[in-house]
Amino acid sequence: MMKNRVIIVRNLVKRFGKFIANDNLSFEVYEGEIFGFLGANGAGKTTALRILSGLSEPTSGEVIVAGFDAKKQPEQIKKNIGYMCQKFSLYEDLTAKENIMLYGGIYGMSKTLIKERTDELLDKLNFREYGDRLISDLPLGLKQKLALSVAVLHEPKIVFLDEPTGGVDPITRRQFWEMIYETAYRGITVFVTTHYMDEAEYCDRISIMSDGKIVALDTPAELKRQYNAKSVEEVFIKIARPKP
Amino acid sequence: MQKIIEASDISKRFGETQALKDISFSVNESEIFGFIGPDGAGKTTLFRIITTLLLPDDGEMKVLGMDSKTEFKELRKNIGYMPGRFSLYQDLSVEENLNFYATVFGTTVKENYDLISDIYSHIEPFKKRLAGNLSGGMKQKLALSCALIHKPKLLVLDEPTTGVDAVSRSEFWEMLKKLKQYKITIIVSTPYMDEAMRCDRVALIQNGKILSIDNPEKIKQGYSRKLFSAKAPEKYKLIDALRKYPETITAYPFGDSVHVTFTGDKYDSSIYTYLGKLGINDAVISVTEAGIEDRFLELMNKAE
Predict the structure, then answer these.
(1) Start-end of CATH 3.30.70.100 domains in chain B
(2) Do A170 and B193 touch (CB under 8 A)?
(3) A244 contacts in B (CB within 8 Å)?
(4) Is B39's CB within 8 Å of A140's CB?
(5) Mean pLDDT, residues A89-117 taken together
(6) Domain that holds residue A131
(7) Mean pLDDT in order along chain B per 10 residues (304 residues)
(8) Residue A48 lies in a domain
(9) Which CATH architecture has domain B3-221?
(10) Does residue A244 register a pLDDT over 50?
(11) Cβ of B252 and A196 within 8 Å?
């Protein structure tokens, strides 16, 4: 069976003056896959992520995201992806419901559809009692679950998660990963960037960037086998030592 | 052995939030002592009490033999504190920051250079650069150098590795280990369970309470059941199926597998038939060793 490709990157190069942030990247990500995008600070992850989400243009190479060309159709890409980061995703001074309405509106969903999805979402998360509370009053775990739900409110093809489970307790963390599995099971591709290698262990496949290049790309199990390592962390330390 | 920290029944409340409740522990000289727990567990509040920046509502905190309430002035001279948020002067250079901290504590960089040389040498080539323009890993090394420059007896590090990549984190822990030769005691907090293994002893902390204190190996061994690891290509279906299996007690995703416990600490081959009926044919179940995170989960469930 040929898997549907939702991200196709061929020979992506991104330069800033003389500096090459992304040096000839080529990779593909499939529908419903949980893909971990790893690399040391300064390896070029953020640059690549900005290109994949239509915020920055490649210097050369081909980047197709959700069927759209990053060079010619960045606006189409933005409509078909979701994004959540640990630091900021929801407006703290709006209620949970207001945040849902705001994001639904931004993604051009109709009022009836937003209302429908809000009800669905609050029920699914056992969130009814929190709907009218300010985000700043919610515990971190609930915030993160709501943020993920809001990021996929418009049923994007791909959702980008930046260090999604940092700082939460082990139970909440597992609930969050189960939500990620469910999201992927529904066919939404989950693209995770993180510094935490135990988080990488949860992904279907991972890529590791170093000095602007992808130096490894495979399933966590296969990489551990190849590098004779017990954990992804060990693999990472073996191959991703950053420049001083 | 001299106790560097002795905390007895420390409680702290902020309005309706009980940040710390009856916390007691002690830390020995030259120990690397870790506080492992999620955001909001009370780690920072506790560290602020240890460093005399906050007073507890109840309980007694003795640090280096001194009372944190009455002898805070003397105490502060002997503590190096690296707060969670990067709090050096962003508009001073690397070198200027270091000189500033040395001067505040009435010493010079030269006097204690041997203590920081190992760490500072990584950033010394960039000593003219503004601290605000450093990368995450370099900021962390500068902050550690500044916290050490007055040769403190106790080093307090609040989430020093948050947001730092795995390679830099690994280097950071190696540096901490080397500080032992100077008899510096280190307390460090982290939300990341895997870092517990780097400490001599750890306290697992959640909702302002300590769940367990011991060396990390013993904490792992405290796991009360036999733990199994189940793998199958479709993890989402597997977790759901295992939870519905009558003999399952707990089932949690854990990296590329699901960690499961069964009644009677065993399973038989009928589980494969059961999973097969639900369309999961390639499942593999094996015995596995519980890690710190498994034990933390178990203790959290008991506490609730």
Answers:
(1) 227-303
(2) yes
(3) 122, 125
(4) yes
(5) 93
(6) 87-155
(7) 91 94 96 93 96 96 95 96 90 96 96 93 94 88 95 96 85 92 95 90 95 96 96 91 96 94 94 94 94 93 80
(8) no
(9) 3-Layer(aba) Sandwich (3.40)
(10) no
(11) no
Task: Find chain B residues with C-beta within 8 A of A181's C-beta.
Answer: 235-236, 239, 253
Q: Which residue of chain B comes nearest to A141, CA vs CA?
A: B39
Is A216 domain-assigned? no
Q: Taking chain B, what is the end-to-end CA distance rounded to the nearest angstrom?
A: 36
Q: What is the mean pLDDT of residues A99-127?
A: 91
Q: How far is B295 from chain A (nearest CA, A)?
A: 10
Query: What are the tens digits of pLDDT across the range A30-74?
Result: 999 999 999 887 889 989 999 999 999 999 999 999 999 999 999
One-letter amino acid at B304 equals E
Could you say which DSSP state residue B93 is in?
B
Strand order in the sheet with A213-218: A81-85, A158-162, A189-193, A34-39, A205-210, A213-218
pLDDT in the model for residue A242: 54
User: pLDDT band at residue A127, thresholds of 50, 70 and 90?
Assistant: confident
Question: Per the domain annotation, does A147 fall within a domain?
Answer: yes
Six-digit token pair at B214? 């011991």
- As a residue count, chain B comes to 304
Q: E strands, A40-157, where? A: 60-65, 68-69, 81-85
**Residue given tokens 């323009």 in the structure block:** B133
Q: Which of B136, B164, B166 sits opposite A233 (nearest CB)?
A: B166
Q: What DSSP assignment string belongs to B211-250?
A: EEEE-HHHHHHT--S-EEEEE-S-HHHHHHHHHHSTTEEE
Is B296 in contact with A170 (CB distance < 8 Å)?
yes
- Which residues of A are less than 8 Å from B296 in CB distance? 169-170
Q: Percent of chain A scored above 90 by pLDDT?
A: 73
Question: How high is the ipTM of this complex?
Answer: 0.85
In a domain, A102, yes or no: yes
- Provide the domain count of chain A: 1
Which of A137, A171, A219 to probe by mutation at the B interface, max B CB count within 10 Å?
A171
Q: Give residue A88's pLDDT band: very low, low, confident or very high (50, 70, 90).
A: low
Q: How near does any CA of chain A get to the CA of B135, in Å?
A: 7
Domain limits, CATH 3.40.50.300, in chain B: 3-221
3-state secondary structure of A203: coil
CA B3 to CA B19: how far, in whole Å? Answer: 25
Q: Is B191 within 8 Å of A42 when comparing Cβ atoms?
A: no
Q: Which residue among A39, A163, A174 places its CB closest to the CB of B253?
A: A174
Over its C-alpha atoms, chain A yields an Rg (Å, rounded) of: 18
Residue B73, min C-alpha distance to chain A (Å): 33
> Domain B227-303 is of which CATH architecture?
2-Layer Sandwich (3.30)
In B, what residues contact A, Cβ < 8 A? Answer: 37-41, 122, 125, 135-137, 162-170, 191-194, 206, 234-237, 239, 252-256, 293, 296-297, 300-301
Task: Output the pLDDT for position B117.
Answer: 93
| pTM: predicted TM-score of the whole model, two decimal places | 0.88
